[in-house]
Amino acid sequence: MIVVTAKDYDEMSMKAYEAMKKVLTEKSDATLGLATGSTPVGLYKLMIADYEAGKISYKDMTSINLDEYVGLPVTHPESYRAFMNRNLFDHIDIKKENTHVPDGLNPDLAAAADAYTAYIAAHPADVQILGIGSNGHIAFNEPGTPFDSHTHVVTLKEGTRKDNARFFDNDIDKVPTHAVTMGLKDIMSAKFIILLANGSGKANAVKEMIKGPVSENCPASILQTHPNVLVVTDEAAAYYLN
Ligand code: F6R
Known about the structure:
alpha/beta; 3-stranded antiparallel β-sheet; 16% strand; globular; binds fructose -6-phosphate; Glc/Gal-6P_isomerase; glucosamine-6-phosphate deaminase activity; identical protein binding; Glucosamine6P_isomerase; NagB/RpiA_transferase-like
């Protein structure tokens, strides 16, 4: 695991993009594992800027997202499909049919999750972007999730719903109670993982991920066992590392 500390959010995004760009330039048909949330938005802006400058094309690339809320229509602005369209897909030349986000409205969520797992097994990400929850979750794999989990439906922890209430008029009751998430084993199948973390609210989770025991109590600690992980944080998120 390589850990890099940037001075602020913009530098964090830039350093993560530099690492990602190597994959984008070396493999024109790369599979991109993507995340939602506030953390990767700066990285996505840099991807868009380089696309607009004619430096990278996504026309032969495929993407696969980590997770989606259960029960939110894709037209809801906070559905992760809408988030990805708004913050990335609508601004680059990736083909929408090549972008994959779990279907949180599927009447058979378990079967859809199994199909997602099978897709990931056949198309492991060349680069997987991750954020981290303040409780150490990656994707929506909350503390206690088995390390050998595949795509599954989760009940979101109250703390996670509180953290995400800022996207739902600060009203926790509007935050969905369930989500579909890639499992930890699916995430570990990526060839290269870039985890970004910014802000003091992530400092403890970052410390547990890097310095704590490899334990299901901190799902992100599984990344200590992956051969190719880059963690990029800002100074606030790195607070307990030194
Ligand atoms: C999002 C995801 C989550 C977030 C995490 C941090 O697809 O899988 O694990 O990465 O909750 O969210 P932000 O970036 O909003 O702090």
